[in-house]
Amino acid sequence: MKTTMAVLVFVCSAGAAFAQQQAAAPVRMECRELSASSALAPNETLMNGMACHVIGAKQDPRPAVDAAKSAAVVNPSSAFLAPTAAQPTSTVSASAPVSTRIVSGATVFMAPMDGFENYLAAAFQKKSVPLVPVASEEQATYILKGTSEEKKPGWAKIVVMGQIHADNAASVQMIDRRSGAIVFAYSVNKKNTLHGQQTTAEACAKHLKEQIEKK
Known about the structure:
Blueprint: E1 5-10, H1 16-21, E2 27-33, E3 45-47, E4 50-54, H2 67-71, E5 107-110, H3 116-126, E6 132-134, E7 142-151, H4 155-161, E8 166-176, E9 182-193, H5 197-214
Parallel strand pairs: 5-6, 5-7
Antiparallel strand pairs: 1-2, 2-4, 3-4, 7-8, 8-9
Helix pairs in contact: 3-5
């Protein structure tokens, strides 16, 4: 049978299946008569008793996406939900332990103690305490605070006990300025001391040095 080639233009209403794929504009088709001895090619469609295929346009080899499946696809932007009160985004971590170790060679500020700080500064030097006194609290790693008290003997102690020197007591504590932790505390009470505050200051310096060296 003589094969006739023709170029036809079909509108979208040519077929329901064809209209769903090519609904935007007219499609350019090339058709041939279909004989009993010939079969449809893979790219041809049977239309009005003729074998037709689209020309002048690239066909998408991917199959059409099923409407029901495409509707079920989750929008990636909705996969992340903003945190709410019922969805905490972080957990509270345990606080790190505070160190009470005194660092050798660190700076220390001696707070005013009614003159007792001067005895402490001299005692630090005499006992070779491995800390560096500074004049400003902002420059210091540690702050040394304390009190000192002197009790002169009354006439009864002088007459009855023969005590001619005063009793001296002192109490100091050293604070880590960054953490606020008390890293050293010491109290001393000296009876009938000749040098009073000097003796108590040296006792404080001696025990502070021992604590630094043993840690």
